[in-house]
From TrEMBL:
InterPro entries: Aldolase_TIM, NanE, RibuloseP-bd_barrel. The gene is nanE. One of its GO terms (molecular function) is N-acylglucosamine-6-phosphate 2-epimerase activity. Converts N-acetylmannosamine-6-phosphate (ManNAc-6-P) to N-acetylglucosamine-6-phosphate (GlcNAc-6-P). Pathway: Amino-sugar metabolism; N-acetylneuraminate degradation; D-fructose 6-phosphate from N-acetylneuraminate: step 3/5. It comes from Subtercola vilae. Keywords: Carbohydrate metabolism, Isomerase. Gene3D superfamilies: Aldolase class I. The keyword Metal-binding does not apply. Its EC number is 5.1.3.9. This is Putative N-acetylmannosamine-6-phosphate 2-epimerase. NCBIfam families: PRK01130.1.
Amino acid sequence: MTRSIHPTLLALKSGLIVSCQAYPGEPMRNPETMAELAESAVIGGAVGIRAQGPGDIALIHERVRVPQIGLWKVGASGVFITPTFEHARRVAEAGAEIVAIDGTRRPRPDGLTLRETINRLHGETGVLVMADAGSPADGLAAADDGADCVGTTLSGYTGERTATDGPDLDMLAQLAGALDVPVIAEGRIHTLQHARDCVSAGAFALVVGTAITHSASITRWFDGAIRGATAS
């Protein structure tokens, strides 16, 4: 039986979700700056925001009226995207309508299975759950475990798939063709053509972060291009 899609997710269909995040130690890493980025993204047409950390999520929830995918990064390796149920609960309490969690088949730090985590979030908070997957097998398992949507977020970062130059279109197409829950393209979408390719591969919606909101990376891209052209 085909699963119905929640109205909050339907509001994201065929749209752009902008990820407003900064790395630790960067000058832009504060809730006010991230909220301003989110407001600017909505002015530009974003149908949703993805943000990390309870402080950023709470302020963005106050400032914008589009759905927010919230997460909490703990560390930078292994299961680090909203790694435990308690982290996920705090993200939901901060105001995220959708909580993004590690959606791989790896053991979770709190000992809960992915299914148990999703069931508790649904039952205790009512929040929707996005499973950040690292492979097609992850995505299929996460949907079976009850995830409301699946993202290609971790492709190339778990050791199961080689990082592609641009979005993992093969993984995206496999999941979009197999699942009855929304498949959201995320990861290394750096150009307008990348975005078009994701739509053609069946993406329900797209998350773009670095290419829009991470000025240090964008500066490095342009600087590298100029230096390369000068050296040739």
